[in-house]
Amino acid sequence: MFQAVALSAQADNLTFYQCRFKGYQDTLNTAFGKQFFRECEVLGTIDFIFGDAAVVFQTCAILVRKPLPGQYLTITAQSRMTDGEKSGIIFQNCTVNATEHLRKSYDFKCYFGRPWNDYSRVVVLQSFIDSLIDPKGWIEWEGQIPVHPFCAEFNNRGPGANTSSRVTWSTMIISHKQASSFTVRRFLESGTWIPPNVPYYLDLL
């Protein structure tokens, strides 16, 4: 139950459709380039979706597994270093849930992620968030206060989607226009490279 990368995606214009990535810590490395995941499952415990790609997950299942005693759970660790980088981890119409094994023991804190670098960017759009997510939503890296993170949520649903107790340095996307910046049309340059047999939403639902 330690670090073991199931996939390290290190190329531009990558598409993954109906795939399953199963690990614990550091399951999926979205290293660089533009990447699109549709109807996939990603399982893990700590920083299990990480890297510096411009990546959109659509209609995917993000499944959090039971960690070792004393650990807390973090879904993402995005490593954007400068304001000019066009990278980020985007979830649209996904489900964030616990595996059955974790559901039996909810004595672990779980967060959307922790900023890996100063300009880390993670956006959760129009997704179902189950009750496993801690009310704080996000956590800093080893006690360090992030400098310019963009950890944002827009129009999510479910028992974990209440944003009233989120950490003060996270961001609430309040406008449809701002949220549209993180769709396939805007964030992945309309996804013209996505294979024609793979369904996708260009815009917000």
From TrEMBL:
One Pfam family here: Pectinesterase
Instruction: Give this protein's Gene Ontology molecular function annotations.
Output: pectinesterase activity
Known EC number(s)? 3.1.1.11
Q: Which GO terms describe its cellular component?
A: extracellular region
Its EC top class is hydrolase
Q: List the InterPro entries hit by this protein, alphabetically.
A: Pectin_lyas_fold (IPR012334), Pectin_lyase_fold/virulence (IPR011050), Pectinesterase_Asp_AS (IPR033131), Pectinesterase_cat (IPR000070)
Residue limits of the Pectinesterase catalytic domain?
A: 3-189
Pathway assignment: Glycan metabolism; pectin degradation; 2-dehydro-3-deoxy-D-gluconate from pectin: step 1/5
Q: What keywords is this UniProt entry annotated with?
A: Aspartyl esterase, Cell wall biogenesis/degradation, Hydrolase, Secreted
* Active-site residues (renumbered): D47
Instruction: State what protein this is by name.
Output: Pectinesterase
